[in-house]
Each structure stands twice: as structure tokens, then as C-alpha cells.
Amino acid sequence: MEHWLWAVVGIMAVFISALVVKICILQKAAKEIENAFAHRLITDTNTLMDISSRDKYMRSLANTMNVQLRQLRIQRRRFQQGDMELKDAITNISHDLRTPLTAILGYLDLLEQEETSETAKRYIEVIRDRAEMLMQLTEELFCYSVVVSREDDTLREAVVINSLLEESVAAFYTALRERNITPVIRMPEAKVIRTLNRSSVSRVFSNLLNNAIKYSDGDLTITLYETGEIVFANTASRLNEVQAGKLFDRFYTVEAARKSTGLGLSIARTLVEQMKGFISAKYENHRLSIHILFPDDKEN
User: Fold this and answer.
1) What's the CA gap between 155 and 148, in Å, rounded?
2) pLDDT score recorded for residue 35
């Protein structure tokens, strides 16, 4: 009886050892599939997944995922091609519209110098307003197509955010005063320096100030922190949480915005992300705040 017991124990030990080996092989195959799949999702390669395991179930899983990867690659290329064609079309359309719009505005200038009736003057004013709006949209479309076509921003330098922020606010002083907005600016005495594209940061600040002019109830607070975070906050009672959440969407506008193209904040987000920064919007208690963070260069 004792010999039979030892035989059973031996058989069980061999079975358990074989099972452990099988589990280890399956774990290795699963890890290979995980790593290969993650790699192929972020790289544009035609190489399919291959695993060392001969297990038919794991190989079947790898083959099924390869089929899905092929389909995903085809869809990605279609999207990239369509996106490129859209950007080219936007660039060409905006370029083609500039010349006739410039001529229209030029003739409006001449027409305003002529003696006309009050009704005609009112009509001319409406035409100018619409033409200027169309010119603004054309310029925004052109700028957007250029910005999103740029994969990375290599023209970088050490930028003192404090100084650039002050310059941007000063450039908008007249426009802010026309809306009876007196900005409150808070920033540290120490210089906040980041390696960024100066013109891109200036464009981001300009777009955010334009956004404040569109939506503010008459106040604006701009805060710069030593961490590289900049917060633009203002009361915006005409907005709601849903609208605030869509402000970064392309071409999204709300009735509260005057002469808005819906591209300003979308361009700002693209520029910030190209410079490895972060941007987000919050809406609480009728107050809209847009947060930008440019991390320290040592953290990138």
C-alpha cells in the first residue's frame, strides 16, 4: 500500500510540475502578445505579432489580433489621408478667399467716403461687419491648418512667462477697456522660465484674452504660479457646464460669443500640447477658468 501511495504522489508531482510549466509558458505568451500589441498601436509598422509559444489557443489569439491590427492600420491610413486632404482644402480655401475679401473691404472704404443716405450707411455697416467676420474666419482657418499640420515645434528658446504675459495683456488693453474689463494680474516676483516657442505662447495668451472678451461678464483674473501654471478666470453667467466643456472643440460657438469662429481655443490647445503642456477648462458657480501648465524643463 505504501508503494502505491508513493507512486500516486509521484504522479501528482509530475502532473503539477507539468501544469506549472504550462502556466509559465502561457504567461510568457500572454506577455509577448501584450507587449507586441502595445508596440504596434503606437508605431506605424507592417510587422505582425509573433510569439514563441506553440500553444494553439495562444497562437489563435495572436492571429485574431493580427487581423484586427491590419484593419486598424487600414482605417488609420484612411483617416490620416482624409485629415491631410481636409487640411490642404482648408489652406487653399482660406488662401483663395483672402484676395476677394481684401478687395471688398477696400471698396467699402471708398464707398464710405461717398455721400450716401442714412439707410445706405446702415447697409454698408452691416456689409462691413459681415465681411470683417468672414476675413477673421478665413485667417483663423489658415492659422488652424498651419498649426495642426505641424508635428512638433522645434523653434524653442528660454521664455520668461511673466514678461510675455504682461506684454500680451498690454496689447489687449484697449479691447479690454471697451468691454469695461479691468484685469487683475497676479504673478510671483521670481521669473518663471520655460523652454517654449515664444510666438506660440503669445498666440495662446492672445486667444485666451479674446475668449475672456467674448464670455466675461466684466471681470478677468490672470494668475501665474511658480509651477508654470497660468489660470485665466472670469465670471461667465451666459455659459453652462455643457458649453464650457465644448469650448476646445473645433468650430464650436455659443450665442454668448460675439464674432466667434470657434477656432481660438482649439488652436490654443493644439499649440499648448505641441509644447508638451496641458490645458483644461472648468466651470463652477458661473465662473469659467482655463488652466494652462507648462511643466519645468527638468520634468519633461
Assistant:
1) 16
2) 80
User: Tell me, what's the pLDDT at 250?
Assistant: 62
What is the Cβ-side half-sphere exposure of residue 233, based on CA atoms within 13 angstroms?
A: 17
Does pTM surpass 0.70?
Answer: no
DSSP conformation letters of 152-176: -----EEEEHHHHHHHHHHHTHHHH
Given this model, what pLDDT does residue 204 score? 92
Determine the Cα–Cα distance for residues 161 and 202; give it in Å rounded to an integer. 10
Please state, in angstroms and rounded to a whole number, the distance separating the CA atoms of residues 232 and 120. Answer: 42
- Cell readout for 233 is 478666470
C-alpha–C-alpha distance, residues 52 and 28, integer Å: 9
Phi, psi of 278 (to 5 degrees): -130, 145
Query: What is the 8-class DSSP label of residue 190?
Result: S
Q: What integer is the mean pLDDT of 165-193?
A: 91
- Write down the residue that cell numbers 497562437 correspond to: 59
Q: Look at residues 209, 116, 205 and name the one whose alpha carbon lies nearest to residue 164.
A: 205
Nearest to residue 31, comparing CAs of 61, 6, 68, 70?
61
Q: Which three cell numbers stand for residue 131?
A: 465681411
Residue 292 pLDDT exceeds 90: yes
Q: What is the pLDDT of residues 36-77, one digit of tens each?
A: 777 777 776 667 777 777 777 778 888 888 888 888 888 878
Q: Provide the sign of the torsion angle of the four alpha carbons 203, 209, 210, 215, taken in this order.
A: positive
Q: How far apart are CA 103 and CA 43, in angstroms?
A: 48
Give the Cα separation of 18 and 21 in Å (integer). 5
Per-residue confidence (pLDDT) for residue 253, from 0 to 100: 59
**pLDDT of amino acid 72:** 81
Compute the distance between CA of residue 217 and CA of residue 152 in angstroms, rounded to an integer: 36
Q: Residue 234's closest CA among 249, 246, 223, 226?
A: 223
Q: Could you tell me if 249 and 264 are in contact, meaning their C-beta atoms sit under 8 angstroms apart?
A: no
Q: How many angstroms separate the CA atoms of 106 and 131, rounded?
A: 11
